[in-house]
Structure formats: structure tokens, C-alpha cells
TrEMBL record:
Its cofactor is FAD. This is Flavoprotein. Residues 187-346 form the RsdA/BaiN/AoA(So)-like insert domain. Residues 4-399 form the RsdA/BaiN/AoA(So)-like Rossmann fold-like domain. Keywords: FAD, Flavoprotein.
Amino acid sequence: MNKEVIVVGGGAAGFFAAIHIARSGLPVTILEKTPNLLSKVRISGGGRCNVLPACYDVEQLYLHYPRGGRFLRKLFYEFGPREAYEWFSRQGVALKTEADGRVFPASDSSETIVQCLMRAAEEAGVKVCTRADVVELKPATEGQWSVVLASGKSLPAAAVVLTTGGGNKHKHYAWIESLGLSVVPPVPSLFTFNIEDAALRGLQGVSVPAARVTLPQWKMTEEGPLLVTHWGMSGPAVLRLSAWGARLLHEAAYQTQVRVNWIGVLPAVMEARLRETIKQNPDKKLKNTYVGLPKRLWVYLCQRAQLSEEITWKQLSNKQLQTLLCLLCADEYEISGKTTFKEEFVTCGGVDLREVSAKTMMSKKLPGLFFAGEILDIDGITGGFNFQAAWTTAYMAATGVRRFLFG
């Protein structure tokens, strides 16, 4: 009987699954509808590729996934960040861990990871076909699936692994739903907040290392670096907050309030700092004392507090001090929309995990059909967690394929 395995999708999960399946001796073909392979890997992390997170405690790791964390928990014990780190190291990739817990190739180039995966696939005998757009899957009859291409060609397969990534519109999953499978409607995750405030946008490029960002409507808070952009706010704190609040923000049409603690400390702590500054620098002008913030941001906040550029610390009234303190620790803006990066689009939604076996990544309804990567209703916050979910689910799918075909 033909034991050809077809992997649909030439991204991170597709290559990782194909490599592990092929290494078990099974013939594998990757079908990629575009002319480009591993495109998300190439552009991730600004071209550096945050290949995985340095989070090796599974009981902490799975908590970084707004959707799918509990599903992944047991899988991480089988193949988690430690195993992924060791796998890439065995392939000759030197990795480095940065202070914020993100792991990158030591080369600081995503091309290192791309070439690693392509080389490993070639050495394992994986066949790769680009411009191969799959338009239909016909369930197995007599142990053989039929994979139909846009060209009209039909390919037989003993098992099919879907690693097509996350679609940003529900219609992208129509061909999967036509198989009788359930799909959780996709909405964007990991996006920046658009804010219609010309003065704030004028701070484009300003960043703070440890902001505390809150969505008061849902009492959701994240901490971390924040970046002011020409459209509003970005940076890890904002992106993580957008991930946890993805569905709520979608339902609110991305119109809600955001509160920012620019300094990341409690108001009482900040007030003590300001009063100490008054004591130590009474005659110094506020505009020349930045209290740990970038100068442009500090001047902007002083202007928002309607403080004169010439005012000194000893001239500051208690009411003015409280106004400044409020802006430092609870500055508020109206979110008017979102901005997503098309190439790095991450979805909240996908194939319903209740219909997928966590042990094998195989469909509970259709034997011989497997899933890995972002096509599943799994998404993590920034920091390499989405790539780790791809490596883990792909490895488990490969294991599932082997068990299915070899028994």
C-alpha cells in the first residue's frame, strides 16, 4: 500500500513535521501554494527569528498561550523548548539567549534557521513542491486520501498533515469545514493599538522599558517594553495585551480605553520619587529632570499636565504634582483601531482543538488527517511562543503519523 505522506504548507510547522516523518523512512512531500518557503520564519523578529522561548518550566510555559495552553501542556513534556533548543543545536545552529528570555540564532539572521530546516528536509529526502495550491481534500477510501490541486491534479496520500497557518478570514477555512470539521472563527491577535492623538504620535520612536498597560473595560494588564509609533502604541506589553484580549477587542470593534503607567511602578512609589526630586533639586526646571523617562516623553507629559516649561520643582503645587503623578502612572487614551503586520499575522482561532487528539494531532473524525502549527486554535504571546507551538505540534504530528502508518 502507498504510504506517501503529504504535508500541506511550507512554513515552520510544515517543514518540521516533514523532516521528522521522513526520518522515520516514510516518503514525504510538502505542497506550498506560494513560490516562497518558510516566509514567516524569514521575516520574524525583524529578520532575526525568535526561534523559541527560554522558558523550560512547562507549568509556566503553557500559561503564555491565550488559546490552547492547556492542550499544549502535556505535549510540552514530550517536546518543549529544551528539546527544540537541543534539536537545532544538533543541526549545527548556534543559539543565544537574550536577557528578556528570547532565543535567537547567534548569527542574528533568520536565514540561519531557514537554511537549517531546508537542509534537514533535503537530507531526509523530503520532496518540496511550490505553487501547489491545494483546493480540496477527499477523505480516505481504502486507506488513501486524495489531495486535489488547483491545477486539477489529484495526489494520493496515506496520511495528510495540514500546516497551512492561520487565515485572517473565516472563508480561508471553508475547505476544512467542508470535511465536517469545526473551526473557531479567526480574529487577529498580536496587533498594535491605533490612537488618534497627534501629540502622542509625534513621539514616534520613543520607548520605555517597563510600562504597565491596562484595558480598564476588562481589567486586563500586561507589563513590559512599550513603543510609541506613528499610529499609536506598540511593543511587547501592547502586543501581549492584544493577544489576551483578542476576542474582546474584536467584539468591541477595537474601540476602548487604554491606561498606561509609563514608569511601571506603584503611584505611591512614584510620588515618593517626585517628592525626593523636589527636595534634592528645588530650583531645577522640570523640563530638565526626566525622572527615568526619555526626555521627549517627559516634556510631553509635562505639557499634558499644563505645566510651564519654566516651572521649577519647588514651584510645583500639590495639585500639579498629583496631576503629573496621574499622567505618569495612569495616563489614558482612546483606542480607535488596530494595526497588524500582514507578513507576521497571528490568528486567534482555527481548527477546534476538541476535535484533535493531543496524543497524535490526528483528527478525531477523520483518521489519517493531522494538524500542526497555526491552523489550530492555538496562539501565544510574543517571545518565541508561537514558534514553539509550531515545533511541538509538528513533532507530535510526525509521531502520530508514524504510529498511524506503522501501528
